[in-house]
Structure formats: structure tokens, C-alpha cells
Design a protein that fits this description.
The structure is a homotetramer of 331-residue chains. Chain A contains six helices and 18 strands. Chain A has helices spanning 27-38, 83-95, 159-168, 220-232, 284-288, 298-302, and strands at 14-24, 41-45, 49-53, 63-67, 73-80, 101-102, 111-115, 121-125, 148-156, 172-178, 187-191, 199-203, 208-215, 238-244, 251-256, 262-266, 280-283, 305-306. The longest helix of chain A is centred in the first third of the chain and has 13 residues, at 83-95. The A-B interface holds A 8, 15-16, 56-59, 79, 81-82, 109, 126-128, 130, 133, 135-136, 147-148, 193-194, 217-220, 244, 249, 267-268, 270-271, 273-278 and B 8, 15-16, 56-59, 79, 81-82, 109, 126-128, 130, 133, 135-136, 147-148, 193-194, 217-220, 244, 249, 267-268, 270-271, 273-278.
Chain lengths: 331, 331, 331, 331
């Protein structure tokens, strides 16, 4: 196993992480968390769903909360550049034995749904209903002032296979963690939009959605949102951080919503779009080493949202998630 | 005159603003400004030149200062994705009657130089020597902690012609200012990399380089760098700001270096890469209206760095730069 | 004329600047400015008055807005330590030929009113009704998140006389501006509470209230409040700054309320309470010199709120307020 | 046991926490920590000692590091207002059976040393050699940009006795923690200078110095100093935080120096100087409850610097330091 070559002529043009769809048990509680605490903008809502976007987003939603009986993830969304790319995508997936279906979604342009090579439910669209960009509508800014979706992280039983699948679709590997002395990536950060991540794969029972990440504009807002969380009774929803990442380099805080879905708030990423940007390798021992924050608790590594209807599979080799040491097969 | 259609199949792939090359009379004074005050990282220097990069850049340089007898701009650099794109670029420009020449440059991969349709000297490369990305090497952070180059602004006598030229090359128009009641853009913001600007054209005698802009990660750093400027004797080099932009929405400060070259420091931009991101129109009267900072002084509109060997031409119609009201021809 | 010796055994114990009382023509407009924009907490309000405090204040009010027919200042309030100090104050002022009267005020303990040596209307109290300190009630934080009152500035026709009056009451001179080559203070910063200012006197027709100043906790909030001001239609109320002070050293912004009353928002001050803290002298030429912000406009020097019923007197010698050069008499 | 009445006519006038004196084994290592990482200003140094101050301090030192064979605290310093207060202090302590001795100290005015009622070694001075206040000398700012000393915390075997001792000296109780349902303070915050703390007593074997605390001006600097610590190899010296305090309300981070001495960096405190500022009571169960940061590790409660020559005594009743539940005697 090893790192594939980048595919600079992908079968269709994926541009970025777009949105995720989550099932929540109590929309009012979720609204208190996402809107009153975090500061998402409500694009639309009714008794069955809330559509949220960040203040810098002109697309209708980057997070959809649907009323459901269990705290499940429904799917993650990726943006293609054009309608033509959607057609090419359908052709590509069908040919690859991954049946893709057109599935109209509210407030989105034509939408194609497919499960990836490990079963993770994806959907692709090229357009969405447009909403005002509220980046300088300061009277709408609140909480952490989330700007826009940045990336997803999934736990999967076979990181190498996802790596190959997404790199064949044109994703580039920005960073990866490998066991010391090995070139086998066990934690991979993949991107399309020119910063380090659009989708990240970490080892674990899956596919499950580990988190969706949203950017915030100022580091003081980490304190603002944590302080507000404590004031509003959400202190225990702060799971990990504030702290500083190794891979990606950003400041971060991870929070769990009232259903246990995890989001990451993080600040700005570096630019990563040149042909000479080679994947950055991190030794697992180094990546696990303490930056300055206390280490993540075990549950940060093991807990994630199940996808509706997808039974997680265990990795063939399990390891210590804190060190990633045994996830890779001997080869 | 009007706004051209985007060209989604450009003749070659330009990815981003890359670097600018400036002539300065005293390298030591320029070093004090760019390194000791602003916080640029020195990638290389000798008695004739200093090569600078931001802390988040892995490319060798985004700003080159050459010892010269006059404070001139030599050229601005754009990045193409691949070597093949450079070949396509040469073919394209030659065919268009704009002679392009290969011109080896230190620390850059193969480099193609050409003058744009109004004579602005450009160069294109796909690769540069790689240097360590110092984004988390906090012991190297200083001053405003410049992250990376973001865009250039040029004054030109015919904005419409530049708009057409660059949109034909695949640039997309993110925002523009037009006189009230008109659709004629007189101030245009063009991008390739997925945020609002890579190159900006404003009306005036030109082509001249108005400024190169570099991103900074925190708004407190506007105060840090202004305070440090005053302490170091550079208070008068602060020309405009800190303030808040209309188009682009960022916080900014403009500074003049010891030779009068202008740089902009600004914070984060929104994402702008979807096919349904339409150009945002600003009425000239609205864009000229006060945000909260005091208005720019006249010299911010009229002064810019001449390009070496390029005689500026006056616009056929001059106007009030504060309002942009007459720059557009009656048509 | 010169600087008096400090009086370490004052006739009674004044502890700090306490509050100011302003007349405003439209309470709703003032509320929009002070509460919806700046972020003051409403302690009480009715159809005739609004009582405001900062989030870190447990005293009932530091700013009282009364409905009035003209935009006047009613008086400024100082805190004494104990009821006994109020008694001593009455005795002291009466003996000094400045008649002091007990004047009950809503939400305040026993209150003594007196006009200072130049006629400025003061009031003293030792206690106020207590309200919850909201310093960590983050759900009540908004706008600039004003913490607490810090100081007042008055324009007066005879700075020297005020200096002598207040130093006899135990105020200490922290900083002062004097014309170059002179020891005659023309701009004086006086304190009781252990940081640089409680009351400041500058030369001009007066006594008039130049501004009341409130501290804010983070420099990013200067941008927050300016941005919010622009969004809410208050851009023109930003008069001067954000910028960096010479004397006092703080970052600041001055704003005019809907009636033209001026407030200053500034960040933290240094500690100034040791017996060996000598007054810091600034040459007028130096203090007038540009820090990094653009200089204040002339109106910042000349405009101020009249006190109700007090006719301003012109200084015997007028000068250029930008340089303070002639305000001092030859002697 | 209970809370004493404030003494508004103390035997002499203590104004504030002044300085601490620590023994360190390797001055070069300590210098790397305090100067190169934290950003203290060196007022003087030789082969045996380093004298440090914060950037907003005009007094010669607030932290003295002496070369020693063991990591001990030598003493903590308090400032009196005048020389006359020192004389009164000597008279007071001698009369109280606590022998006080004049002990000349470098760079300090006349200095009086005494051990408090539980043996904690104190010294008092009214003046110090003056140094430039570097609050706006931004070219000297580095790391966390420590402004000034704020307070000390000591672990002591009998908090009640210290409370009575210091309140008799004029200290006022700003906040305290008591077991639920009890009025017996087990964790007390005492102040003279008008903000919540000058000296704090917590239960434990002692007297030992738990930490000295220094203020920093911006919350972003918590990230700056933690990031720099990690870059410089001091990640493991970050013991607790960044986080938000209950009592005192500040943001904080605790760090251990190379000898294990603990310092706190925290941001601004509220004003606390009015006669109607009553002590704020916290239930132990509430104070121990999670704010938003992870709880302190046990060592934060139990580890502290021994004072040279002072054998710590155990509290007569020990308790769980995380809850403080049993420290108080049944009475």
C-alpha cells in the first residue's frame, strides 16, 4: 500500500465540500445549539427541517438538520463545478459499478446520489438556491460567527481504499499520518478547493461521520463561543480544545451537538494548490505527541455519527487510536 | 461596453497571483520595512536582491526586491498549474500578437514573460523552489505575520479592455463598481483561485502597479503592525486604514514602503468558486460612501508604481477618482 | 504657574469617576446607540430616563440619559469611599466658599452636589443600588462590551486652576502636556483609582464635558463596534480613531451619540499608584505628532457638551488646539 | 469561624502585590522561559540573579530569579504607600509578636521583612528603582507581553487564620469559596489595589507559594504564548488552561517554569473598590464544576513551591482539593 499519484485529469470536476445532512431528535434543541450558540444563519426552516449556512456563504445551506427518530447522519454533499460534471459523474460511477441516482433535493440544483467505495452516502450538486452573503451584515453575527463549511472527516475501516477512490476522482493528498518508519497512510487529508482539506479519512469502524468543520474568522471567537456555551448550559458539549492542530496547523475546538453529532470550529488554513505542493508526511508518534492542549479523550477517536442504513464495519486491524500504530497491515 | 461572459474553457490554466518584483533604492531600508516591521520571511538575499515570502508560503518568494536606481515595479507574476500550461500560454499569446519569451528567473521554474494588452509586464511560472512553510514556526512570526500573497491592483487607462483580456484567460469577475445607473464596470475585481481577487483593475494613468496585497491572520495584528510602525519610525508610511472595505469586505491597511511602493495587508476573504457565484455590482456612489474609516486621501487613488520601461497613458476620460463618476465613456 | 505637590492627606477620600448624567432629545434613539450598538446594560428605564452600566459594573449606573429639550450635560459624578467622606466633603466645600447641597438621586446613596472652582457641576456619592455584575454573563454581551466607566474629560478656560483644585482634593497628576520648553501644564490627566485617569482637563471654552470614557476588554472589539456602527447607520457617529493615544497609551475610538455627546471607548490602562510614580511630561509638539492614526479633526478639539445652566467662558489666551502652543500665559 | 469585618483604618497602608523572589537552578534555562517565551523585560542581570518586570511596570522588578541549589521560593513582596507606612508596619508587627527586620535589597527602597502569622516570608517596600515603562515600546513586546504582577496565591494549612491576619491589615475579601451550606471560607481572594486579588489563600500543606500571576492585555496572546511554548519545547510546561476562571472571572493559563515554579497569565479583572462591594460567595460544589475547560489535574491543587527554610505543615483536616469539601473544621 502506498500513496497514489495525483490525477490531474479527473473524470469530472469536484470543487469542494458542500454540505452535510443530519438527523436530530429535537429541532428546537438543535436550533439552540447551532443558531443561538454557534451562530449559524437560518436559510429556511419548517417543522421537519432547518437549513443553515455560515455568514460568508451565498449557497442556501451547508448544514441540514432533519427531524428524525435517531441521531444519524444522512449523507455528505460535494459540489461539482457544472451540470455537465454531474452528467460525467453519473457516467463514471455507473461504469465503476457504483449506482448513482438523480434525487431532487429542496433548495439544491440537480442532485446525484451515490455511495462511495466503502458505502459512505454522498451527493453531488453544482448549484443551490442563492441567499444573501452576510459576511459584513454584522447585525447578524453571533456566537462563533461561522463563515463557511470547510471539510468533513469520516471514520472508515480501510483508509487506503478511500484514499485511492478519492484520488482517482481528482482529490489531492495534502497531509497524511503514517506509522513511524512506514509509508502507509492511516490518516489522510484530501482536498479539491486549494486549502488542506475537503474530506479526511481516519481509521475506525465505519463509514461513520466523525465531524463537519466550519471556519471562524478570529481566534478570540474560540473564547467567545466557549464562554457562551458555558453560560448557556452547553459546557459539556465542548469535547476537545481549544487547541492547535498538528496536520492542517489550525486552532480548533470540537463540540458535540445535542444529538452527539460532532462539529469542528477552526480558523484559517494555508493555501495548497500548486503542482509542487507535495503531501506532507507526519510520523504517527509525532502527530500523537502533545501540541500544547491536553490530548483528546479516547471518545474523540472512537465516537462518530452512523450513516442512516449503513452498518459500520470494523477495520481488519485495529490499533490504538491515540497512536495509530497498528492500523496499517503488515506488508 | 459591458461585462463579458466567463470563459470556463480558458486557453491555459492560471491558478493564482504569485509574486511581484520591485526595484528599490536601498535594500537595507526596504529590509527594515518588509522584514523587521511587516514580518516577511527572507528566503534568500544578496547585495542585489532580497527574496521574501509569507509565513504560510512554501514557494520561494512572493515579493522580490531588487536594488535599482529608481523606485519602479519590474513585473507581476502569475502561477500556471503545469509546465504544459506554460507551453499553451506561449502559443496563445504569440497567436494573439503579444510576443511571449522564455526568461529564466532565479528560484523559479520555467518562466514565460509577456506584456498584457495594455502593456503591463507579466510573467508566468508553474513551479518555484520550495521552502519550509513556517505557518506554525511561531518563533519566526513577527510584525503583521504576513501569510501569503493574495492579489495585485493595477491602475490602467482602459479598465474595460483589461476586463475582456483577463476574462478571456479564464479569470472570473467577483465584484465591480459601476457608475450609478450604468452597467459599465470602472473598477473590477478578478479571480482565479476561488476567493474574490487575484488581480484588480482601477481607472487611472497606467498601467502602473497600485499595490500587492498580503493576508494576515488576526485583526489584532492591524494594531500590532501600526503600533510597531510608529515605534520604528514608520508612522508616516501608513497611508490608509485600518478600515473596512466595501468590495471584498476585508479589514485592511495600506502602507507605503521606503520607495513609495504600496502594499495592502488585509484579513480573510470569502470563498468564491461556484458556478452560480455571479459578479456583485456596486454603485460608484455607494462604494465611495464612507464605511467607518475616514476616506482615502486623493493620493491613494492617483499614486502608483510605474513599471520599468512602460510609459503610463492617461485614460481617454478622466474622472473624480473618489467617485469614479466620469471614467466611463458615454456609449 | 507650575505643578502642585500631591496632597497625600486630602480633606476627604474620593475613589474614582462614577457616572455622568446627560440630557438627550430622543430616548429611543439614544437607546439604539448606547444599548443596541455600544452594548451598555439597562439597569432601569422609564419614559423620562435610562440608567446604564457596563457589564463589569455592580453599581446601578455609570451613565444616566434623561429626556430633555436640549443636548446638555447635567453633571459628572465622583465616588467617595464612605458616608463619612461625604460629610467631610460638605464641610470642606462649604468652608472653601463652594456651596454644597444634599440632593437625593434615584438609585444612589446620599448624594452631595457642588460646582467646582470653574463652575463644573459635580456630585459625590459613596454607594449606589447594587446590580448583578454581568462580566461573565456572556449572553448579555453585545457590541463593544463596555466594561466600566473610567474617566471624564472637560474643556475648561483655565487648566491650571482646575489642576490646583483637584490636586488639593487628593488627585494625582499622572501625565500632562506642556508647550515645548515650558513647565506649564495645558492638558492634565488626574487620577484617584490607581490607573492614569479619573478626570482630564483640556483647554477650551468651558467648563464643558468633552467625553466620558468606558473601557473595553479586547482590541478586536474596536473593529466589532465600528463594523456594527456602519451596519446600523451610525458610521458618521465615529469621530476619531480607532487609534493609539500618546498620553495614557491606550487604543481608542471616539463616537458621538445621536445628540452629539461624545464617548470614548478604550482598552486597558497601566497601573499608577506608587508614591514614586512621577507625572509624565509630554512636549506639546510631541503629543500633537502623529501616532499612526490620522490626526483628530478640529471639531474633536473644539466641540463638547455644555453643562445645563453653565455659560462657557473662553480661555484668556486661545491657541491652536492641535498644538496647544499658546494656551499657556507668558509668566 | 466566619468572615471578619473589613478594617477600613488599617495600621499601615499596603497598596498592592509587588514582587516575588524565586530560587532557580539554572539561570539560563529560566531566562529562556521567562524572557524568550513569556516576554518579561530584563531590568538587570548578573551571574547570580535576573530582575524582571512586565512591560507596563516602571518599578525595577516584579520577579527576581536567584541562582540556587534548590527550586525554592524565597519570599513574596508587598508594596506600602510611603516610608512612614513601613515604620508603622515595623511597629505593628513587633507589637504583634512577629519580629520585623530591615533588610536592604538591591534596587529597592528601604525594605522590611517579616513572616506572617503562618510563617510565610513577606517583605514590604514603598519604593523601587525606576525603569522605563515599555507599554508602548512595541519593539520590546514579545511572547505573552506580560503587563504587570497582579497577585500571589499561597497554599496554607489554616486559611481562616490567614484571612483574619490579612483582613486586620486592611485587605478586603473580594470572593471566597465555602463548602455548600457553610459560611466557612476555604479559598479566599483578598485585595488592596481595587481589583479582585492581591493575595489568595487556598488550603493545603504550607505555607507554600502556589503561583504568582501576571496580567496580559489580549486574549489572543493565550494562543500566542501556548503556540510559542510548543515551538520552543515548553509544551509540557503548560499545566492548566487556557480556560475561564469562576472566581475572578478571568481567562487564564498556568505554566510551570523549568524549576517547577508556577506562574499564571490572565487577562483583565473587574474593578472592586467601592465600600458596597461585598464579598462574593461561591459554593465549593459550584466552583469545582466545569466551566468550559477540562478540570485542573490533581497536581495543580497539591504542588507548590516551598519557601526556603519553612517546613510546610499539613492542614489539621485534609480534604479533596477538587471539591474542598472537608477542609473546613466542623464547628
Amino acid at each position: 500500500m502506498s500513496i497514489p499519484k495525483p490525477n490531474y485529469s479527473p473524470p469530472f470536476n469536484i470543487t469542494r465540500a458542500s454540505h452535510s445532512v443530519l438527523h436530530v431528535k429535537d429541532l428546537a434543541k438543535s436550533r439552540a445549539f447551532y443558531v443561538d450558540l454557534i451562530g449559524f444563519i437560518v436559510s429556511d426552516e419548517d417543522k421537519d427541517a432547518i437549513y443553515l449556512r455560515g455568514v460568508a456563504e451565498a449557497s442556501h445551506h451547508s448544514l441540514v438538520l432533519k427531524r428524525g427518530s435517531a441521531p444519524l447522519a444522512e449523507r455528505v454533499g460535494l459540489r461539482c463545478f457544472s451540470e455537465e460534471d454531474l452528467e460525467k459523474a453519473k457516467f463514471h460511477f455507473d461504469k465503476a459499478g457504483l449506482p448513482a441516482r438523480w434525487a431532487p433535493q429542496p433548495h439544491q440544483g440537480r442532485t446525484l446520489q451515490v455511495n462511495d467505495v466503502l458505502g459512505a452516502p454522498l451527493e453531488f450538486c453544482a448549484t443551490m438556491e442563492r441567499k444573501p452573503r452576510l459576511v459584513v451584515s454584522f447585525d447578524h453575527h453571533h456566537g462563533a460567527v461561522p463563515q463557511r463549511i470547510d471539510h468533513f472527516q469520516l471514520l472508515v475501516p480501510d483508509v487506503q481504499r478511500e484514499l485511492e477512490f478519492y484520488m482517482a476522482l481528482g482529490f489531492r493528498l495534502s497531509e497524511y499520518i503514517a506509522p513511524d518508519g512506514s509509508e502507509d497512510p492511516v490518516f489522510v487529508f484530501l482536498q479539491r478547493k486549494g486549502n488542506p482539506h475537503d474530506i479526511v479519512f481516519a481509521p475506525g469502524a465505519g463509514p461513520r461521520l466523525h465531524h463537519a468543520a466550519f471556519s471562524i474568522p478570529e481566534s478570540t471567537l474560540f473564547f467567545t463561543v466557549c464562554d457562551l456555551a458555558a453560560t448557556m448550559g452547553f459546557a459539556d458539549n465542548i469535547e476537545f480544545g481549544p487547541g492547535r492542530h498538528g496536520p492542517g496547523h489550525a486552532l480548533f475546538v470540537y463540540m458535540r451537538d445535542p444529538d452527539g453529532h460532532r462539529i469542528e470550529l477552526f480558523n484559517t488554513h494555508y493555501q495548497c494548490m500548486d503542482i509542487d505542493d507535495e503531501p506532507v508526511r507526519w510520523d504517527a508518534s509525532y502527530a500523537a505527541r502533545r501540541n500544547w492542549q491536553l490530548p483528546a479523550r479516547e471518545r474523540w477517536y472512537s465516537e462518530a455519527s452512523r450513516f442512516a442504513g449503513i452498518e459500520p464495519r470494523e477495520p481488519s486491524r485495529k490499533g490504538n487510536p491515540m497512536t495509530l500504530e497498528r492500523y496499517v497491515a503488515a506488508n
